[in-house]
């Protein structure tokens, strides 16, 4: 891929996903710019000082962009107002800047499979009725709606639990599982950073245009197994699992569009030393 594709603006460039996605995009030859607030960015990436809460800074940031990859978000925070402000107001500001200054840009939005109902009767599907109760998924649903109605060329990629590339996220999972008192038999969809890159590449090429798409690997894995992998085994019990499809995303649409994860299971990641 040469750099004639044009300017790609990435938000959340220093976060869990962005810091691992950007080097891959640069290596592929994309001309990447990162919206940052006084932070260093990956080699080969041009930093643009700006703030999602300061619309004036976004005007120049999006100017001449051929694509906008919006990763910035607040997830685990006790401050629900901050989550809503970041994930909805920040996204609205970026959408408005794009409409005024880069109306032909491809806008790729990172969403979440947490949007699906805990009591869903099947793995979460993109056209399910959504009514999330927590601030993070609810703010993402609201931002998706704004994006769909923006008139921009958009796509929304719903990611499940993200891991790999030394991010420490999987190692951090036990404390969240314990706090939520999850059932050990609950299966959770996962995605490796390497395959987020594959999905974003497809979106940049227009394959996801105008769609909400679940992105996940091929094997939702039980929490019992995941915690064993990081040396923090859960207690065993065989009480019935009341919400068997929670955190399990249906990836039929992604597969039909040609998405094939290169890290098909968490066990493959372990075997190939990709954690």
CATH topology: Rossmann fold
Q: From N to C, what is the helix and strand string?
A: EHEEHEHEHEEHEEHEEHHH
Give a quick account of the main beta sheet: strands, pairing sense, barrel closure: 7 strands, parallel
What is the CA-based Rg, rounded?
18 Å
Ends: how far apart? 27 Å
Query: Going across the major beta sheet, what is the strand order?
Result: 3-2-1-4-5-6-10
If you average the pLDDT, what whole number results?
A: 95
Structure description:
The protein has one domain (3-163, 191-216, 250-262): NAD(P)-binding Rossmann-like Domain (Rossmann fold). The strands form 3 sheets. Strands 3-2-1-4-5-6-10 form a 7-stranded parallel β-sheet, with helices on both faces. Strands 7-9 form a two-stranded parallel sheet. Strands 8-11 form a two-stranded antiparallel ribbon. β5, α4 (135-148) and β6 (153-159) form a beta-alpha-beta unit. It is an alpha/beta fold and 275 residues long. The protein has helices spanning 18-27, 55-62, 80-101, 135-148, 169-180, 193-204, 223-229, 252-256, 266-271, and strands at residues 7-11, 31-36, 46-49, 65-70, 106-112, 153-159, 161-163, 187-188, 190-192, 212-214, 221-222. The chain is globular, with a radius of gyration of 18 Å. It contains 9 helices and 11 strands. Helix content is 35%, strand content 17%.
């Amino acid at each position: 891929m040469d750099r004639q594709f044009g300017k790609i603006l990435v938000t959340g460039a220093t976060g869990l996903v962005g810091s691992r996605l950007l080097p891959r995009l640069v290596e592929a030859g994309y001309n990447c710019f990162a919206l940052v607030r006084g932070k260093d960015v990956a080699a080969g990436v041009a930093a643009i000082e700006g703030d999602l809460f300061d619309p004036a800074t976004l005007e120049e940031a999006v100017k001449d962009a051929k694509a906008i990859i919006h990763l910035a978000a607040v997830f685990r925070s006790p401050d629900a107002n901050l989550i809503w402000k970041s994930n909805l107001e920040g996204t609205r500001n970026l959408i408005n800047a794009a409409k005024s200054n880069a109306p032909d840009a491809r806008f790729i939005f990172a969403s979440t499979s947490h949007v699906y109902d805990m009591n869903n009767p099947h793995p979460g599907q993109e056209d399910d009725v959504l009514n999330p109760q927590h601030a993070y998924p609810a703010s993402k649903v609201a931002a998706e709606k704004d994006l769909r109605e923006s008139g921009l060329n958009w796509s929304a990629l719903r990611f499940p639990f993200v891991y790999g590339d030394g991010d420490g996220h999987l190692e951090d999972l036990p404390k969240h599982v314990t706090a939520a008192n999850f059932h050990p038999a609950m299966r959770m969809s996962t995605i490796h950073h390497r395959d987020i890159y594959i999905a974003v590449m497809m979106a940049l090429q227009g394959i996801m245009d105008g769609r909400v798409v679940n992105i996940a690997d091929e094997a939702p894995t039980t929490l019992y197994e995941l915690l064993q992998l990081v040396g923090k085994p859960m207690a065993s019990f065989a009480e019935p699992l009341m919400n068997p499809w929670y955190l399990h995303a249906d990836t039929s649409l992604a597969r039909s569009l040609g998405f094939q994860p290169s890290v098909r299971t968490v066990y493959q990641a372990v075997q190939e030393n990709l954690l």
